[in-house]
Structures
1.
Amino acid sequence: MFTPSGADSDWEPQRRAIEDAQSGDLDALGSLYDSHINQVYRYVLARLGNVHDAEDVSEEIFLKMFAGLPNYQWRKVPFAAWLMRIARNEVVSFTRRNGRRSLDTELPEDVIDRGNNNDPAETTERLMALEDLRKAVDLLPEAQREVIILRFASGLSVADTARALGKQENNIKVLQHKGMQRLQVLMTPKYPELAQR
């Protein structure tokens, strides 16, 4: 993924890849997809909590990206912010069409394998903690939940999260702070070690 630091020359590779994709260059389209699929998928999975739905919705998001790409206008704003706005809208549409999301217990292998540990007890504890965290995030107010998911599940910066949600950066920082405080309160009864942080 492209992460410009501010100078005009830093934006050039991203701008060029987008323009190439807009002109129908399949390699550039593939590059945009490859650069953003993990970020989009993590966001959708965090919002829907169901692997199969997350795969389907992620596919729809990229179809919408491809359809909307000819109208995309370069504004020196990371492409991810535009794409995550599409993702957010598609998740909202999906949940409206299908009612409240249904969680399944299947988590992607990369989440399960992160500990690089073959200890079944430790893997089970990690899965239970992830499920507890997902349930706690679901209890947050919508604005806080969106910020937490975009920042930590998708890995967007504060600035990109602000652009994706159409908010000011200071507002994102406040929502993140309040969301993290609330998560600490929600998680501390089961995980008392969080109280000392």
2.
Amino acid sequence: MRSDKIEFVRKRVLHFLKAQEIDILGVIPEDKILGAVSVRHLAEMPSGSVICREDALLDEWVEGFMVGAMSPENALRFFQRQKNIVVITGGDRSDIQLAALEASVRGIVLTGGFHPHDVIVARAEERSIPLILVDQDTFSVVEHFGSMREGVGLYGEKKIERARQVVEQDIDFPLLYQKVGFSS
């Protein structure tokens, strides 16, 4: 759950449920790390190929993505507000690609099968930002990434450790043990 919703649940819903004598085992908030996918995972989509910096950042987590379809000035402003994102833009949009390379992005997905200009590749190499080339159009890639994030699993040590932390922090284990008949 988002932080504004989790506060509502903790202040209003939990109070109501406790008044009804319903035991609460925990409220688990939305966690960006648990919902993240790796750049490598994104690059494995059909027809996806890493054309720059295969060695860099592929195992970094992507918490979201943005579509670069606006003016470069506006795009840069939006990209700079986000962290740990991948930018999806047409392979023929060098202006947006340069804007993304100036922000803290984890990678750039170039759609339409268009290879980027040599200047873009050189700048991506310099900044250690992977470029992923795909044949699909931007809309199809966005749909694919959206459905991919819905089925994200717990893989990798970082995610498993984070899941353990979230559960330990937000679940009332003594109450859970009591309810299932175990002693704590």
3.
Amino acid sequence: MTEDNIRAILEHIARGRLGVDEGLRRLRHLPFADLEFAKLDLHRQLRRGVPEVVFGSGKSAAQIAQIGARVVEAGQNLIVTRLRPAKARQTRRLLPALDYRAQAHIGVVLSHVPEVLGHGSVMVIAAGTSDLPVAEEAATCAELFGNRVTRLYDVGVAGLHRLTSNLQEIAAAAILIVVAGMEGALPSVVAGLIDKPVIAVPTSIGYGAAFGGIAALLGMLNSCAGGVLTVNIDNGFGAAMAATLINRVGLPRGTSDGR
């Protein structure tokens, strides 16, 4: 149930094109649709400006397809994160419209093209190629949430000249999402060079003492550079959501960045 859906129902009632009882029936799914195994938050688009995102891990293909069909029926965009290739193939048999973004492990059905909103672009920076699945989850989600997104990959601290040769492009972004595993140093370096918010994303990439991303997480939480905000390990979606909300602060709903 989107703002446009509700507005259309109210206008039809006001003009006598729709009865009150039928209007009530259509509004009854607000704020959620009860699928028994899931209570789908169809009100989230109205409250937060982005639809509920489905976490694919742990759900069956049948459950994802049923949720997806209901989201599409409501006129909202379907976004499924943590969707592995085998389950994506199974889901697509039940929901043929599903578009699978393999590197990001995200499934999408677009009911409409997201409107571009915000003060500027979101840049996603990844330390290494091994970090790309998480970086692409962040970048893809940010795009689907209505941000202009740029990418800068494989610019980790082991070869710092790769990062510093792109400082002009980095400084042009409104918000930086910086993804890194190992010791997780890259967000601190980036934050020390620019005057924009940095959202740090630790990944589970690294050798034994990386402890599945805990070393990177602790490094980012203990950053000596001010302005570094840290999300959970491998949480590209969470970083994209935070970047989206920051990018829209102070803008009335429906205000484009005009770029």
